Amino acid sequence: MKDVLILGIETSCDETSAAIVKNGREVLSNIIYSQIEIHQPFGGVVPEVASRNHVKKISSIVDMAFKEAGIGYSDIDAVAATYGPGLVGSLLVGLSFGKSFAYAAKKPLVGINHIDGHISANYIGNESVKPPFVTLVASGGHSHLIYVKDYDSYDVLGQTRDDAAGEAFDKIARTLGLGYPGGPAIDKAALEGDPDFVQFPRAYLEDDSYDFSFSGLKSAVLNYLNGMKMKNIKYRPEDVAASFQMAVVEVLTEKTIKAALDYKTDRVCLSGGVACNSLLRKMMREKCDAHGIALDYPAPSLCTDNAAMIAGAGYHKYQKGVFAPENLTAKPNLKI
Ligand code: KG4
Ligand code: ZN
């Protein structure tokens, strides 16, 4: 069978990324320009600043992706670009560039849902991952539990009712003075902390619900910190970070395992930036092993936003002949 090469483009938030992926599984290049340092002084992503920087970078990032892959523009079979969900101004940059590129190169355009991209990261470099499986997609913008029936067929079992898991990590890290992005900072601080120092609430919601809620936990941590401040009691941020992380990870793990058992699947995959979390990986591994469930997660650079995952998702749509209409536009609230 002829190899299929897809150019992926991702600009939904603050990473400008372009990648070339072969047959949905092999990364030939994955160039990621992160704007983290630009947004750091603001403690979070500033949408207008993000889109302006995407405009500055996108052309050279795409060129780098071709150079590193060692191929020419006409060697690709299709262009895959994220069209939602995300920041509308940011999405428009990558999508417009992808459309123009596809038009000029006379190649088809495939529109990709960013969450589909995160899920597809699990196929990259890992031939053994094939649907069906249950996946937890946890990032700065989303927390979903999804039953992946086929490459392009998903049942959303549950999602967050308020904050995304990564968003909670980012907010608590900011309050603890650990910096932005908060996930890696809390992960690191928690290594030096006591996870049993404070028993923060776990929001399991209704017995049969696969939904998540992290806003109550966030308030509980903030109330705890305010109380300590008012009583002038000293605490170690590492202990609070470890206790908070344990509360998030326990709920994510238990709900994911419950879904895998209820849906009788023998494979669980993790996706999204929070899938980099060391405690989540460890606890999920222990629970999956105990139940005889295979566990997979992408390399950290494929968990956080990148274009290889978009090209990977593009491959599966390309194979089915699902191409974007010419009037495809950015959809900031696109659902999976
Ligand atoms: O997938 P991603 O790059 O962007 C979105 O689609 O949102 O995820 C970024 C999120 C941020 O909230 C970041 O704090 C979180 O993933 N994150 C982590 C870790 N690494 C990144 N959260 C917990 N532990 C980590 N090690
Ligand atoms: Zn993402």
From TrEMBL:
Q: Kindly provide the name given to this protein in its UniProt entry.
A: tRNA N6-adenosine threonylcarbamoyltransferase
What Pfam families does its record include?
A: TsaD (PF00814)
Q: Does the keyword Secreted apply?
A: no
Amino acids binding Fe cation = 114, 118, 305
Check the record and name the Gene3D superfamilies matching this protein. 3.30.420.40
Can you name the source organism?
A: Alkalibacter saccharofermentans DSM 14828
Amino-acid positions noted as binding substrate in the UniProt annotation, renumbered to this chain: 137-141, 170, 183, 187, 277
Biological process according to GO: tRNA threonylcarbamoyladenosine modification
Q: What is the lineage of its organism?
A: Bacteria, Bacillati, Bacillota, Clostridia, Eubacteriales
The Gene Ontology CC terms held by the record are: cytoplasm
Which of UniProt's keywords are assigned here?
A: Acyltransferase, Cytoplasm, Iron, Metal-binding, Transferase, tRNA processing
The enzyme's E.C. designation: 2.3.1.234
Q: Which gene encodes it?
A: tsaD
Intracellular or extracellular location(s): Cytoplasm
Q: Name one GO molecular function term.
A: iron ion binding
Q: Which cofactor does it need?
A: Fe(2+)
